[in-house]
Amino acid sequence: GAVVSQHPSRVICKSGTSVKIECRSLDFQATTMFWYRQFPKQSLMLMATSNEGSKATYEQGVEKDKFLINHASLTLSTLTVTSAHPEDSSFYICSASGALGTDTQYFGPGTRLTVL
Amino acid sequence: AQRVTQPEKLLSVFKGAPVELKCNYSYSGSPELFWYVQYSRQRLQLLLRHISRESIKGFTADLNKGETSFHLKKPFAQEEDSAMYYCALSDQAAGNKLTFGGGTRVLVKP
Questions:
Q1: Interior CA angle at B51 toward B6 and B25, to 5°?
Q2: Over the stretch B56-93, which tens digit does the pLDDT of each residue have?
Q3: What's the rounded Cα separation, in Å, for the pair B93 and A45?
Q4: What count of other Cβ atoms lies within 10 Å of the Cβ of residue B35?
Q5: Do B98 and A46 touch (CB under 8 A)?
Q6: What are phi and psi of B93, to 5 degrees?
Q7: Helix, strand, or coil (residue B44)
Q8: Mutate which of B10, B21, B44, B90 to test chain A, going by most A C-beta atoms within 10 A?
Q9: Do A32 and B95 touch (CB under 8 A)?
Q10: Which terminus of chain A, N or C, has less C-beta within 10 A?
C-alpha cells in the first residue's frame, strides 16, 4: 500500500515551453502533497506544499508563477513548469501523506526534466 | 530555521562490518526524525522513524536530544545495504514538511 506515481518519468522540452508533471496517490487519499527538486549529487529541496482544494504554500525563493501547483483532488497534484529554461532542468519528486491516517510521506519515482 | 546535517558524503565498509551514519539536527521544537533510503534506480523510501523505535533491515537509530543527533547504525552491513541514505526532520508546526540532510552514500564491499 501507499503507492505514489508520477508521470511522465522523463521529459525533454524546448526552452520557453511549459511542462506539466502529475503526481498521483494510487491507493490512498493524500491530504497533503509535497513537491521537491533534486539537483545531481544533491539532496532534496522542498519547493512547495499543497493541500487539496487550497493554494499551495511555496518555500522561500521558489517562484509561484514559475512553478504552478494544482491539487484538485485527494489523489492528484500537478506541477507545471511554465516557460521552462535550461536552468529548470532537474529531477522533480513528489510525495504524499495521509495514508493510514499518518503523516508519513510516501515518495513518487521522480520526473527528470531536461530543457533544451 | 531547522537544519539537518549529514557530515559524511560517502561511507565505504566491508560486508559484515558495522556501519554508522551520522545525523545532527537543529530545531527549536520537539523533533520528529526519519531515515529514508534510496537504492539504485529506485524511489526514496522510508527506512525508519524515531517515534516507532523499531528496527528495520537490522538498522536502528536513537534520538539523542542532548546531542541533537539521530545516528543510524547497523552492526553487520550487507552488500544490499549499498544505497543513498537521507536523514530528515519533520516540522510539525509547518504541516509536517521535511527538511533533508545532504545524504550519505553507503558502499558495502564484498
A1: 25
A2: 889 999 899 899 999 999 999 999 999 999 999 998 77
A3: 18
A4: 23
A5: yes
A6: -80, -10
A7: coil
A8: B44
A9: yes
A10: N
